[in-house]
Amino acid sequence: MVRPTARIAPAVLALSSVLAASCGPAAAPPLTEARRAAISDSVRQMAAGLAARISARGYRAVPAVMDSAPGYVWAYNGFLPFTSFDSMAAWARSAPEPAEGGEVFAWDTVRVEAIAPGMAHFAAGYSETAADSAGRPRTERGVITGVVVHRSDGWKFVNAHTSTLPAPADPAAIRQTRRTR
User: Fold this and answer.
1) Quick one: the chain helix, strand, coil %, rounded to 5?
2) How many domains is the chain built from?
3) How far is residue 29's CA from residue 52's CA, in Å, rounded to a whole number?
4) Which domain holds residue 153?
5) Distance in angstroms (rounded) separating the CA atoms of residues 57 and 103
6) pLDDT exceeds cutoff 70 at 181
7) CATH number of domain containing 80
8) Global pTM?
9) Is 154:46 a contact under the CB 8 Å cutoff?
10) Which of 65, 90, 103, 175 could covalently link to 98 via disulfide, CB atoms 3.0 to 4.6 Å apart?
């Protein structure tokens, strides 16, 4: 004789599996316009703080807003010099501290687009002015794009790409080129 519990057990197991599968993680709240604006404002605050810290400490300030989770990558001018948080952090630690008042990092434009709760796309133009070896101010301009996620300690770039714009042409070299044509 087959015991009743032997027939019920497979049915209970099947029902449990169906219920467990239907009880996935709670859906994230929708991104309302107010929530999108709040994410954008929060990421902009992180970016403003980063600009101030780079002006004060140089690139040593960068690791604080980069994600140390696996998968981090930062591309630069078409290369992948930083394929991990550790490689970027080592580079940042080796960067010289800027002279007092000798570096100014500023965002020229900032665009933030919320992707999901706790995640946004960041795109910005920047300028960085520092003294060259002769003590003259030299400005480098570029763009940075990346994805930022909100962690327990704030917004972090999980990936980024920075490209520098070419320096403006030397007027004397342009005149010389025109004379030789």
Assistant:
1) 40, 35, 25
2) 1
3) 33
4) 31-179
5) 9
6) no
7) 3.10.450.50
8) 0.75
9) yes
10) 103
Residue 120 lies in a domain: yes
Measured CA to CA in angstroms, residue 76 lies from 25, 52, 82 at distances of 37, 21, 8
Is 124 inside any structural domain? yes
Residue/partner pairs of 25-34 with CB below 8 Å, 24 or more apart: 28/116, 28/117, 29/117, 31/114, 31/116, 31/117
CB crowding 33-45: b at 16 or more within 10 Å, else e: eeeeeebbebbbe
In-domain check, residue 22:
no
Q: What is the DSSP letter of 66?
A: B
- In degrees rounded to 5, what are phi and psi of residue 88? -70, -45
Q: Is residue 104 part of a domain?
A: yes
**20-48: average pLDDT:** 81
